[in-house]
Structures are given as structure tokens and as C-alpha cells.
Amino acid sequence: MKEFTKIEYAEAAHAARHFGNMRFATLGLLSAMNGAALLNIERLSNVSFALPFPIVVIAVTACFWILDESATRYWRRAVARLAEIEAGEGGAHYLRPRSNPVFSATWATRVLYWGAILSWLAVLL
Asked: How far apart are CA 37 and CA 56, in angstroms?
């Protein structure tokens, strides 16, 4: 393996780990924020905001979802590049087929985001 390819492979692997970790860190932060908002909904709903409190939480949840989708795109690009490098070098770590592409962590995360948004819409209505 050429020196540049080794460096590129290491950087792409680092990027894949970074964006994978970022996705689940933001999901944890979002869960904590939604939990705190749910526990304090009565107290926070009495405070005069320009917008009703559930709308603010829905907007923040949507922002976290956008951040997650962006991190997913970067993660997929890094993994695709790792697979390209491995194909040229005879590696097999990132070239293995996924066991079940229908039930992925990405879809499970999307279900959680939809669940949070729909729950707050139910509170709003």
C-alpha cells in the first residue's frame, strides 16, 4: 500500500468513527433535552414565550435531525471511500455486505426523531 493511500485510509477511518460517534452523541443529547422538556412542560408552558413551548422543542428536534442526517451523509462518504481503497488493496473490512439493510441504525434513529416530533405535536394539539 502506498504511503498516501495509508494516510488516506487512516483519515477516512477516523472520519467514519467521528461521524458515527457524533450521530449517537447528538441522539443522546436530544433524548436528554426532550426528557427534561417533558418533565418540566407544565412549568415551562406557563412562561410567556413568543412561541408555544412545544413548537420550540419541535424546532430544536428538527435541527438535531438535520445534524444527524448530515453526519450520516459524511459517514457514508467515508465508508464508501474506505471500501474503494480496500477494493484496490485487497482488504475486506468495509467490503462485507450488511446483514440486514432494511433494519438499520439510521432507520431506527429516524423513527426516534419522528416519534419525538409527533409526540410534541400531540402535546401541542
From this structure: 10
CA 24 from centre of chain:
6
Upper half-sphere CA count for residue 47 (Cβ side, 13 Å): 8
**Contact between residue 114 and residue 62 where contact means Cβ atoms under 8 Å apart:** no
Positions of the chain with pLDDT lower than 50, given as ranges: none
Residue 69 in contact with residue 78, Cβ under 8 Å? no
Q: How is residue 96 annotated by DSSP?
A: S
What secondary structure, in 3-state letters, does 28-87 show?
A: HHHHHHHHHHHHCHHHHHCCCCCCCHHHHHHHHHHHHHHHHHHHHHHHHHHHHHHHHHHH
Closest C-alpha among 66, 69, 57, 70 to residue 31: 57
C-alpha cell at 7: 494516510
pLDDT digits (tens, 9 = 90+) for 87-107: 877 666 666 666 666 778 888
Q: What is the number of alpha carbons within 13 Å of residue 90 lying toward its C-beta?
A: 1
Tell me what percent of the chain is helix, strand and coil, each rounded to the nearest 5.
Answer: 80, 0, 20
Q: What is the pTM of this model?
A: 0.80
